[in-house]
Design a protein that fits this description.
The protein is an all-alpha fold. Helix content is 76%, strand content 0%. The protein has helices at residues 6-32, 42-46, 70-91, 94-104, 110-139, 143-192, 197-207, 211-224, 229-238, 243-266.
């Protein structure tokens, strides 16, 4: 293709438009983060009056990020926080996201998941921009459809992360459903051999491997951390959407609670 080829001309024009868009977005980010234009937070307003407070132990402070990307991470942190807040306002549904994260066994917070959605959305914007540039170079499409294509790419990236979370939860519950008969049989064999409900749970959690046995280990860890075993089992039932597993866990909780009451009466 020669320099006078209209396809090459379209590519150069769209490349220039892309560079101008990036430069414009950078200028907007700089202006938005200027102290004179930035809204003063509650912490900034209260900070001058609490400077004499005793600082917390340095052992409780999170270590600042280190490495070659530390500076970039600190620079992008305010922008990422604003983007996470925007996604939260548009999508909402914190309780649904929290429940799915619990069903997945993920200890990440809702804010961390929203940050992942922002990253996926940026990736979708880049893919949409690339597709728009190729489409403009090949067919010389008008500007509004190309801008719409870029925006659709960003929205698709955000929604794709949400779909990936739901799919991961569904696959995990399928694995738990496949493991359930084996775990239930081992628990029944342990109880019939003379072990109590707690001992049977510990034996199965220790000898088995898989998603369901991992949930049993988490339940026992919560019980050792101070919660009653009945409360920990109820938490396991609340974290699953499988009716059969929820009924089974409720039955074990009732059995453990009845044994505890009988032991208290004997004492």
């Amino acid at each position: 293709m020669s320099a006078g080829d209209p396809v090459v001309g379209h590519l150069w024009s769209w490349a220039g438009a892309g560079l101008g868009l990036v430069a414009g977005l950078g200028l907007v980010l700089v202006l938005v983060r200027l102290p004179t234009l930035r809204r003063v937070s509650v912490e900034d307003r209260v900070a001058p009056y609490v400077r004499d407070a005793v600082p917390p132990s340095r052992l409780l402070l999170r270590e600042p990020p280190a490495g070659p990307l530390a500076v970039a991470e600190r620079m992008l942190a305010p922008v990422m926080g604003d983007a996470v807040a925007a996604v939260e306002r548009v999508l909402g549904g914190r309780s649904g996201v929290r429940r799915r994260l619990d069903q997945l066994g993920d200890r990440a917070s809702v804010e961390e998941f929203r940050a992942q959605q922002v990253v996926w959305g940026v990736g979708g914007l880049l893919v949409g921009t690339g597709a728009a540039v190729l489409l403009a170079g090949a067919r010389g499409a008008a500007l509004p459809p190309l801008v719409l294509l870029v925006l659709v790419g960003g929205a698709a990236g955000v929604l794709l992360r949400d779909w990936a979370l739901s799919r991961a939860v569904r696959q995990r519950e399928e694995r738990m459903t496949a493991e359930f008969p084996t775990v239930a049989e081992l628990l029944a064999l342990s109880v019939s051999a003379g072990e109590g409900a707690v001992g049977a749970l510990e034996r199965v959690a220790r000898t088995c491997a898989g998603e369901l046995s991992g949930e049993l280990r988490r339940t026992l860890a919560e019980a050792r951390a101070g919660a009653s075993l009945v409360q920990a089992l109820q938490g396991l039932a609340d974290r699953t959407s499988l009716p059969s597993l929820a009924r089974f866990v409720d039955g074990v909780a009732v059995a453990v609670g009845g044994a505890t009451v009988r032991n208290a009466d004997e004492l």
